[in-house]
Amino acid sequence: MNLQKAIVAQFKKPHGSFGRIAGWIMANRRSNQERNRWTVDLLEINPSDRVIEIGCGPGVGLGYCLERAKEGQVLGADHSRTMLDQARIRNAEASVGGRLDLQLGSFDDQPDTVGLFDKAYSANVIQFLPDRAAAFNKIYALLKPNGISATTYMPRGKNPSRAQSLSMAEDVKRHMKAAGFVTIRVEELPMSPAPAICVIGKHP
Ligand SMILES: C[S@@+](CC[C@H](N)C(=O)[O-])C[C@H]1O[C@@H](n2cnc3c(N)ncnc32)[C@H](O)[C@@H]1O
Fold first, then answer.
1. Which DSSP category does 95 fall into?
2. 94 has pLDDT over 90
3. Looking at residues 67-93, what average pLDDT do you find?
4. Gap between the Cα atoms of 92 and 165, Å rounded
5. Ligand 1, atom nearest to 122 Cα
6. 19 lines ligand 1 (CB under 6 A)
């Protein structure tokens, strides 16, 4: 396996030194910062909101959430200890101050706690979750009434295309509808070589 492949293979669950490099890339790549900021803007976070990011990685998106939820609480969930360590360092002030919680574990095993959050989001994580129906049922349960869910995805690998982005959007929409979300819409962010999509829906 060449070096690039070894690092790309880390994005699902970064660990060890290649995992730390993958985290550094995610945190510093302009397009990843832009994708996360765009998604967080679509969540329309209010100052007192409680927000969860699923698969928070090195914590770039958590920083954007914390800037907006100034009097609120942010939870970053990820099954990679390497990523949570980076997220903690990147958002040290909020972590020490108690505005940021970091939770280690697979989202699939997250307990079905009801109505805890105003906003829930993920960026480039949905492709790794083994059971999307269960994932959106869980997100629905975690949100308060009127809560908002945003799911962003941009295809990778060989020849990523807009068709792949839109196909994922359709699949996410289907699962969100089945889970009970309403006013579901898709936004597109032009990126190279394929656009990022974000599917947004509301808990009634
Ligand atoms: C491609 S990275 C994206 C990280 C971050 N969202 C970003 O945009 O910078 C995917 C992240 O999702 C996490 N992840 C993948 N599957 C997961 C699962 N089932 N439960 C929790 N975290 C998961 C990985 O550990 C990794 O940090």
1. H
2. no
3. 97
4. 34
5. 6
6. no
Residue 124 CB less than 6 A away from ligand 1: yes
Neighbours of 160 (CB within 10 A): 16
Average pLDDT on 135-145 reads 97
Find tokens 């969540």 and name the residue.
43
Q: Give nearest CA residue, ligand 1 atom 19.
A: 106
| Encoded amino acid at 202, one letter | K
Is there an atom of ligand 1 within 6 Å of 15 CB? no
Residue tagged 């979750």 (tokens): 129
Query: Which residue from 17, 54, 30, 31 is spatially nearest to 134, judged by alpha carbons?
Result: 54
Closest residue by Cα to residue 51 from 181, 144, 131, 129: 144
Helix (H) or strand (E) holding 187: strand 182-189
What per-residue confidence (pLDDT) applies to 1? 61
State the residue for tokens 């909101």: 49
User: Within the chain, where are the H helices?
Assistant: 3-8, 16-28, 30-42, 60-68, 81-90, 92-97, 132-142, 162-179
Contact assessment for residue 120 and residue 77, using Cβ atoms and an 8 Å cutoff: no
Confidence check: pLDDT of 54 > 90: yes
Residue ranges of domains in the chain, CATH in brackets: 3-202 (3.40.50.150)
